[in-house]
Amino acid sequence: MSTHPTRRTFLKIGAGGMAVSVLGFDLQAACAQARTLKIARTTETRSTCPYCSVSCGVIIHTIGDKAKNVTPQVVHVEGDPDHPINRGTLCPKGSSLYHDILNDRRLLKPQVRRPGSDHWEDISWEKAYSEIARHVKKTRDETFVEKDKDGRTVNRCEGIAFTGGCTDTNEFNYLAVKAMRSLGVCYLENQARL
Ligand code: SF4
């Protein structure tokens, strides 16, 4: 029998699937060492997957956190084996978190699409805040209902609706609900984290 690896057995070796390789030495220790080295010097931060309300626990590995003049860099994200919800597992969305964090197409500043325009344009945070505040004030002033048709005091704003995304934290949603209720907004929905 030939001692040369076939393409199939060679791929198995690459995946660390064989205890004793056809190359004649044990690869298991080397594979385990390679896995260890990847996260050997990282800082582990426990967090929660932001994608859905299952709220699986994740461990985010960063490198460079403790060095001066170095920007910390996320190098690995994995399921938290100690988390009671997922016990280390992640679905495909959660498993892609690393690429979500480092995606160069991720939006980092506000954008606006003007009425009639066919494209989005970048605006500053300051401009976004003031434009949103102006629209909210104008809409609330125009649509606020103090009493319903039977004369009962309702103090509600029917012209604004608010929805939160699945990546919003409990704390964000708490503040959003407080802010919207203070305006009288009753069409309000979000996906609070557990
Ligand atoms: S890993 Fe999947 S199931 Fe778990 S919270 Fe994220 S999206 Fe939901």
Q: Roughly how much helix do the residues carry, as a percent range?
A: 25-40%
Instruction: Work out the helix count.
Output: 6
Shape: elongated
Which series of helices and strands comes N to C? HHEEEHHEEHEEHE
Major sheet description: 3 strands, antiparallel
How many β-strand stretches?
Answer: 8
Characteristic key phrases:
three-stranded mixed β-sheet, 8 strands, 6 helices, alpha+beta, three-stranded antiparallel β-sheet, single chain, 194 residues, elongated, binds iron/sulfur cluster
Protein described:
The structure is a single chain. The protein has a three-stranded antiparallel sheet. It has a three-stranded mixed sheet with strand order 6-7-8. It is built from six helices and eight strands. It has helices spanning 7-14, 28-38, 92-95, 97-102, 125-143, 170-183, and strands at 43-48, 57-63, 73-79, 111-112, 121-122, 144-147, 153-163, 185-189. The longest helix has 19 residues, at 125-143. Strand 4 (111-112) and strand 5 (121-122) form a beta hairpin. The protein is of the alpha+beta class and 194 residues long. Residues 15-20 have low confidence and may be disordered. The protein is 32% helix and 23% strand. The N and C termini lie far apart (58 Å). The radius of gyration is 26 Å and the shape is elongated. Iron/sulfur cluster binds next to helix 3.
